[in-house]
Design a protein that fits this description.
Shape: globular
Number of helices: 36
Number of strands: 27
Strand content: 15-25%
Length: about 1000
């Protein structure tokens, strides 16, 4: 350990970092050290490295867990401004530690970091070494609630994890800390005793008093304009809070209040720090635009520093290619292939697919707005690149004739036919003489005009502007900044390769200039490659071990995993794990499936736990037997060439540690009464204004019981619901679900059965969480369905009441998913037919902790209906038909049945007559007119016949909901309507007669009200 720390100190000082000392009070991470939190503020450059003992009371395990410590060792690096090649510098540090980066599978996996207490956030990655997270790598965007400019990059090494992997040990106690001294021998006692303190002995009142005292002292130091001591007391506040939290002594209200207080203090500290540095004249200087180094230049410089003589010919070839680009003659005429590669630091998997689609759309639209002829457009993407290919691009735009319209002829010439000043000015402004003017007719007016031949622009000119717009227009669901002005994207863009045939398409975006150089695998020698031509670019990348085609990568993942699983008598459930396979596909540029194994003793854990650990934490594919039971094997997918044995061993060690954690949680939870877990949910914040998870569970329970009354639930099902409602959400207080939140409901069922609850109660608790996503299973039991429905109704009403409805792509609480859950639960069960959406939302409103206005309920109902509408359209139903039946959306089951009936009536001549008649009635009757008329005042035979037909239909159709039967039973009425319109003047001159006839027609209108939206069926 100590040797590794010395190596990192040496490495980073050689790269311009100061080495400072750890903070002299407890901090939860190196980020909290003033050398990071304060120094990333303001315009001063800053490069620093330091060791930080990081204290996290909640990770206390008495020294028994092999991977969790209340005090662990971080090594922190801050590079401000981010240099453009921080990833390469980091990989160099791993090599300095003795890690063979070519043999191991080193991966940058999406991680969006945030610290609510400090008002700080950033985007970046977890860095994996053979599946083990060893480092947090973050581009800071905000700290103390202040947007950072320039952006800093933070690299946080987890030293125990790195050293355990290097030394091949399975427990932190067995680490060699120094020659002849193990980690356990040096620090095992402290780990045990501090765990005892944090979990068992810390005095709660003392910690609360300390929190208040520290907060008060921080406030006093801020008032004295001393940000450094103020910040030290904010850190002490944070530690006192963490001790209370580890003891389970922080309530929902306290948590929200404490976080807000610490965040406010941190914000004031940050502002005061920058102000004080400015008063001092920013002693370290200011970062200027000149300090921003293009990534391609930074990488080249860094590689040049470490490159051996064997790479020198490649460098010479690159220089020659660049010189050739500068002096190359004009391109030969004829169509050519365009290839554009946007090089990015590892994108999140979802953004790989999304960005490929966005680039294709942008290219299609922008090329379509030009006159440049071209062929097919394809876009491929992998984690580090987006490759657009356009076939058969013409060498220039087509020439065209342009007509420019001028003033009217009447204004362009005087009475003698001489050009006026208006005509002369128009002609000269367009480089012509009045004699050149022609005439065009626009509408009823004749104008003078000029017609000229416009020569099409060369392809390079068109593409240079167009491609720059494509790059600057890139956006993702969550964007970040880096040291490239005017660019904002999911991760930093580091290079652009753009070729039309053999020529570079030149353009500049921010600090990036297009060229013919691409970056290949980082451990390749060299890590860059010159591209001679756009033709055959994907095969060129393949020769360098990179598969840009996602479909090809996916096929290699599926086929390779299936082959490995078959070798041990199992198979991969590719359909079940389709989403996981898609994610894996977009985590790698060259899939390398590797079979791993784990100790069969872990098969005693519920299979859901085993699979969730593999899927959520490690992105492994489980191997199962013919019956679907777990086998002690898994498939990991590495990125590119590696030492399979080394990578297999590393991944197996990671999974073993994960399963040890799961076993620890499983055993601890089985020893905890369900009531105690339920009580712990009072410490879990749901939403500050809506209370704790326990408050939410209480609301779900009450709503479910009210809904049960509506459907007449009784007998054993009623007893099951009452017991399940009393326990609902209890598993959120378990250690397992705290660690693996996706197991909510699953663990409720497991723990309930083992605590002696009936299978029916356990099943209802499980079904409370269904459906989890579109296409997921629905509750099979009525008690489970009522709980699930109540859960989603509470979520919708509560969040709409506080204004937290989804906006754009943001849906933090999964309200879109909840809305579809409500729809599909009501759709799927005939025994819930008595429940109406509007009434159910109103019931949920009665139990909310905040006031719920009628507009909130209406907005929530419309939100659910819009999701229902979208689902039906996505299933292939006509938009017109779907909108017509949504008038019955208060009962999704009735609306769906009506849609089926409406589709069955398509092409039916009789229904077309019915439709036309009712639409005609609705067009003539004023909106809002009541169906009031006097039958005694109906004197015309057609009036009387219509009245009689209406009365008969009312009697026959009373309470009828079927569209088919409505259409069948209204035949006589429809005939009467048509005769009425043929023989009666509705808008009679006599107001009384006119009003009576309109009232009669309003009665016809109202008979059909609510069956479908007749007006939408045009």
């Amino acid at each position: 350990m100590q040797e590794a720390l010395l190596v990192l100190n040496k490495y980073w000082t050689e790269h311009g970092c100061l080495v400072v000392q750890p903070m002299n009070t407890e901090v939860g991470a190196g980020t909290l050290n003033p050398a990071t939190f304060l120094r990333v503020q303001g315009p001063e450059p800053w490069r620093v490295a330091y060791v930080e003992p990081s204290v996290r009371p909640d990770d206390s395990r008495y020294g028994e867990n092999p991977n969790r410590l209340q005090t662990h060792t971080q090594y922190q690096v801050i590079l401000k401004p981010e240099p453009g090649n921080a990833q390469e510098l980091f990989l160099g540090s791993l090599q300095a530690l003795g890690i063979d980066t070519a043999a191991h599978d080193i991966r940058f996996v999406e991680d969006n970091w945030a610290s609510p207490a400090l008002g700080a956030w950033g985007l970046g990655w977890e860095v994996w070494l053979d599946g083990l997270e060893i480092t947090q790598f973050t581009y800071f965007q905000q700290a103390g609630g202040i947007t950072l400019d320039p952006v800093s990059v933070e690299i946080t090494y987890g030293m125990e994890r790195i050293l355990m992997a290097l030394q091949g040990v399975n427990h932190f106690k067995d680490l060699k800390y120094a020659p002849g001294v193990t980690y356990g021998e040096a620090f095992g006692q402290a780990e045990y005793e501090m765990s005892r303190y944090y979990l068992d002995e810390a005095d709660l009142e003392t910690q609360r008093s300390l929190f208040e005292a520290y907060a008060g002292e921080a406030r006093r130091m801020l008032d004295a304009r001393l940000p450094v001591p103020a910040y030290s007391f904010v850190l002490k506040c944070s530690h006192a809070f963490n001790v209370l939290d580890a003891r389970g002594a922080i309530s929902t209200t306290e948590r929200a209040r404490s976080f807000a207080r610490m965040r406010g203090l941190a914000h004031e500290v940050a502002e005061l720090w920058v102000a004080r540095r400015e008063e001092l004249g920013f002693p370290l200087g200011r970062v200027s635009g000149g300090d921003v180094v293009p990534a391609s230049t930074a990488v080249a410089a860094d590689e040049a520093q470490n490159r051996t003589a064997a790479t020198e010919p490649a460098v010479a070839e690159q220089s020659a290619a660049a010189e050739q680009d500068a002096v190359a003659p004009p391109a030969e005429p004829g169509p050519a292939t365009l290839v554009v590669e946007i090089g990015v630091e590892e994108m999140p998997p979802a953004e790989v697919t999304r960005t490929a689609q966005a680039v294709r759309t942008a290219l299609t639209e922008k090329l379509g707005a030009t006159r440049l002829g071209h062929g097919e457009i394809t876009v491929d993407a992998s984690p580090r690149r987006v490759v657009a290919t356009v076939l058969a691009v013409e060498p220039r735009e087509a020439d065209y004739e342009q007509t420019v319209r001028g003033p009217r002829v009447s204004a362009a010439f005087d009475a003698e036919g001489n050009p006026t000043k208006a005509a002369v000015g128009f002609a000269r402004s367009n480089g012509a003489e009045p004699a050149d003017l022609g005439r065009v007719t626009v509408g009823a007016n004749e104008h003078v005009a000029l017609t000229r031949q416009v020569v099409g622009r060369p392809a390079e000119e068109v593409l240079s502007a167009l491609l720059a717009e494509v790059v600057t227009g890139l956006r993702s669901e969550k964007n970040m900044r880096w040291n490239a002005p005017r660019l904002s994207f999911t991760r930093p863009i580091r290079w652009i390769m753009a070729l039309l045939g053999e020529r570079v398409v030149p353009f500049t975006v921010s600090s990036l200039t297009s060229g013919r150089t691409t970056q290949v695998h980082r451990d390749a020698v060299p890590p860059t490659a010159e591209v001679a031509t756009a033709d055959g670019y994907l095969p060129f990348l393949k020769e360098h071990g990179i598969l840009a085609d996602a479909a090809e990568r996916r096929r290699l993942v599926v086929d390779g995993a299936a082959r490995l699983a078959e070798a041990v008598g199992g198979h991969i459930q590719t359909e079940q794990y389709g989403a996981l396979i898609d994610e894996i596909t977009n985590l790698v540029e060259s899939p390398t499936p590797i079979l791993g194994n784990f100790d069969p003793k872990y098969l005693t854990l519920p299979a859901d736990i085993l699979v969730t650990v593999m899927r959520k934490h490690q992105r492994y594919l489980p191997v199962v037997d013919a019956g679907g039971s777990m086998l002690p094997h898994f498939v990991a997918v590495a990125n590119g060439a590696c030492d399979h044995d080394v990578v297999r061993h590393g991944n197996e060690a990671v999974l073993r540690a994960r399963y040890e954690d799961a076993s620890f949680f499983w055993k601890a939870d089985l020893e905890t009464p369900l009531s105690e877990m339920r009580q712990k949910t009072r410490l879990l914040t749901f939403e500050e204004r809506l209370g704790s998870m326990a408050d939410r569970a209480d609301r779900i329970s009450a709503i479910a019981l009210r809904l049960a009354q509506a459907v007449g639930l009784s007998g054993p099902d009623r007893e099951v619901l009452e017991r399940a409602a009393a326990l609902t959400k209890f598993d959120l207080g378990s250690q397992m679900v705290t660690e693996l939140s996706s197991l909510a409901g699953i663990m409720a069922r497991e723990y309930a059965v083992r605590a002696g609850e009936s299978q029916a109660v356990a099943q209802a608790l499980y079904e409370n969480e269904l459906p989890r996503s579109a296409g997921d299973a629905l509750p099979e039991t009525l008690p489970g369905a009522l709980l699930a429905l109540a859960d989603r109704l509470d979520l919708l009403v509560g969040l709409f009441a506080i204004g937290a409805e989804p906006t754009g792509s943001s849906d933090a609480f999964g309200l879109r998913r909840s809305a579809l859950g409500v729809v599909n639960i009501l759709l799927g069960r005939s025994d819930l037919a008595a429940i109406r959406l509007g009434q159910a939302l109103a019931v949920a409103a009665e139990y909310q902790a905040v006031a719920v206005e009628q507009r909130h309920l209406e907005d929530a109902a419309q939100f659910v209906l819009r999701r229902f509408e979208q689902q039906l359209i996505e299933l292939g139903h006509s938009t017109t038909d779907v909108r017509a039946v949504l008038v019955r959306g208060d009962s999704p089951r009735l609306a769906a049945r009506t849609l089926e009936e409406l589709e069955s009536l398509q092409g039916d001549a009789r229904f077309a007559t019915v439709l036309a008649a009712f639409q005609r009635v609705r067009r003539i009757v004023p909106a809002g007119l009541e169906a009031v008329y006097d039958p005694e005042q109906l004197h015309e035979p057609a009036e009387q016949a219509l009245h009689a037909a209406l009365a008969k239909c009312r009697q026959v159709l009373e309470g009828e909901t079927s569209l088919v039967r409505f259409a069948a039973e209204t035949g006589e009425l429809v005939d009467a309507v048509n005769i009425f319109f043929d023989n009666v003047l509705v808008m009679a001159e006599d107001p009384a007669v006119r009003a009576n006839r309109l009232g009669l027609l309003a009665g016809v209108r109202d008979l059909a009200e609510g069956i479908v939206d007749w007006e939408s069926l045009v």
